[in-house]
Amino acid sequence: MAPPQELSTINSTSEPEPMLVLRNCPASACDIELKFQSLTDREFMIQVEAPNGEKSLMLHFPGAGCMRRFNPSKTGCGHGEWEIEVFAREEDGNYHKILTEELMADGTGSLFFTVGEDLQPVLESQVWAHLPKNASCRKYSFFSGDKRK
Predict the structure, then answer these.
(1) How many CB atoms within 10 Å of residue 9?
(2) Does residue 135 fall inside a structural domain?
(3) Source organism's superkingdom (predicted)?
(4) Are 127 and 109 in contact (CB under 8 A)?
């Protein structure tokens, strides 16, 4: 089966009409979904950026049990680096960025993360989407509960 195709338009000075060009991409961003569930009573927000540059709205987690998801809707490749930013609500009532995680992902499917007291996303399960063994970022590990270490 052929990999998904990314469409882009190129304008040429010799051609009055735009030309459509196909590029191979192992995974369209809209075919990958990230789900997060809060396991803490601490209030926080998460923002996700897909490899195609699309950012989620701020995903608000007011307390334990709250679940949110991000599924990009813009055309573009989803293979590559995904960025997850975590913002904690501080005593002053404002949200402050406390963590930025980066992870490499490809394939299509769903990644499910839980967020505990430390507000660090931990990968709990994945359906179809592939994460290379070294997909953790430089400072923290998404796989703290995973046996891949």
Answers:
(1) 9
(2) no
(3) Eukaryota
(4) yes
> What's the predicted TM-score (pTM) here?
0.71
Query: For residue range 49-78, what is the model confidence (pLDDT) as tens digits?
Result: 999 999 999 999 999 999 999 999 988 888
Query: HSE (CB half, 13 Å, CA atoms) of 92?
Result: 3
Using the 8-state DSSP alphabet, how is residue 29 labeled?
Answer: G
Instruction: Please spell the DSSP secondary structure of 43-62, one letter per residue.
Output: -EEEEEE-TTS-BPPPEEE-
Q: Tally the C-alpha atoms within 13 A of residue 97's C-alpha that lie toward its C-beta.
A: 8
Q: How many domains does the chain have?
A: 1
Q: Report d(CA 54, CA 49) in Å as an integer.
A: 6
Is 134 a member of any domain? no
CB 145 within 8 A of CB 118: no
- Structure tokens, 114: 């839980």
